[in-house]
Amino acid sequence: MEVIKMTEELQNNVLVHAVCDMLRQCTHDRFCVVYLDQKVNSMEIESTSAHADPEKFHDHLRITILSGLTELEKYFHENVNSLKRQYGALLFLYSVISTKGLDQVKLECDSTDPLIDAIYGYGSQSLINLMITGRAVTYVWDHEQDVGGLKLKGLDKQSQIGFITSMEHLRYCTVGSFYKSPVHPIWVLGSDTHLTVLFSEERKLVSPETKSEQARRVFKNYDKDGNNFINVESLQAVLQELDLVSDSAYVDIMRKKLDSENLGIILLNAFMEEFFPTEESSVPDMFQLIHYNGLPISNVDGQVKYHVGSAILLESDVRSICESNPMLTCLQTKWPNIEITWWNNITPSLN
Q1: From CA 253, how far away is CA 276, in angstroms rounded?
Q2: Tens of pLDDT along the chain (351 residues)?
Q3: In this structure, what is the dihedral angle of CA atoms 120, 172, 181, 235, given to the nearest 10 degrees?
Q4: Measuring CA to CA, how many Å separate 78 from each of 4, 75, 97, 135, 175?
Q5: Cβ neighbour number for residue 157 with a 10 Å cutoff
Q6: In the 8-state DSSP scheme, what is residue 349?
Q7: Of the candidates 148, 146, 150, 181, the residue with the CA atom closest to the CA atom of residue 163
Q8: In terms of DSSP H, where are the helices of the chain?
Q9: Of 230, 344, 221, which is closest to residue 291 (Cα–Cα)?
């Protein structure tokens, strides 16, 4: 692994690139940057509890309109410290929403829940999706899904960076391939209380799917409980999604062959052996993952550090469920057969 000296200049350049990229995903030309009037002393907007008085804070907000990406980058290079100062994250959030347009944010949401929980301060999934993809959709699956006659919007294309969550292991949501297989090998990890970051230098982790990998993914979309089998009635839909022969007569023959004991189910292994006997994999069997949790309280001795892990993908389809290891169960939603050994034998925290 190449070690690069992280100078303050490099940190600033990366930060500016990141925030500009996030705003670029919201629009193509007109950017709105929200800032705090620099003439205002922080004491002027703080109440006696040393927290900002909301009314005073918002009275001193200003907005500047920038007409292109070049202007936007120039502005943030000149004002990069505004992102690091108190309220920097909140002001950037306002910039994202202003650039996107509040009406458009509301239009994309399938939920009336607030973007930020009023009691605990947690960001909603719509807010997370807005910051990662530029769209404030409520769900994390691919495209739209029909749920009880309602068309519920998910991601419309492959994301630049990914998102996986321990909530999927608990069956609270279904994360689609647009998030699990992003353009870059970077994933935001979600828990019930916090967001952390996972990344790798192994570009093959996000290389295009092989035919057999696509087949496994489509098959498992119909295997909602993760049992490695589907109902025989789902076979035709699976074949159609994979652009395989799917006329009724052929499907009936395959049903009888793959469910010879007439149990009403088709096993994943039997399906793969029939249609994809020579399996290919675009993902290496071994690779390194690096995890970052920015909360000092979640790190050993309160020291925020990167945690490096050596991962291996086992050949078996049977996963080892370890409820006491939230990190592993979260990673298994992306790589079901992963095992990982963290350096120094310290498993990093998702919370």
Answers
A1: 17
A2: 566 778 999 999 999 999 999 999 998 789 999 999 877 655 566 554 556 788 888 888 999 999 999 999 999 999 999 999 989 999 999 999 999 999 999 999 887 888 998 888 889 999 999 999 999 999 999 888 877 888 889 999 889 999 999 999 888 888 988 999 999 999 999 998 899 999 999 999 988 778 887 898 889 888 877 788 999 999 999 999 999 999 999 999 999 999 999 999 999 999 999 999 887 777 889 999 999 999 999 999 999 999 999 999 987 665 566 678 899 999 999 998 899 999 989 999 999
A3: -170
A4: 24, 5, 22, 28, 38
A5: 11
A6: P
A7: 181
A8: 8-24, 54-59, 69-78, 81-84, 88-100, 102-108, 125-133, 166-169, 177-180, 211-221, 235-241, 248-258, 268-275, 326-331
A9: 344
Residue type, 299: N
- C-alpha radius of gyration, the chain, whole number: 23
Which burial class, exposed, middle or buried, applies to 283 when counting CB atoms under 10 A from its CB (0-12, 13-18, 19+)? middle
Phi and psi dihedrals of 135, rounded to 5?
A: -125, 135
Q: Which amino acid is at 38?
A: Q
State the amino acid at position 183 in one-letter form: V
Name the residue among 48, 135, 153 with its Cα closest to residue 97: 135
Q: How far apart are CA 186 and CA 188, in angstroms?
A: 7
Q: CA 118: distance to chain centroid?
A: 23
Percent helix, percent strand, percent coil in the chain, to nearest 5: 40, 20, 40
Cα→Cα distances 312→7, 230, 309, 331, Å: 33, 27, 10, 12
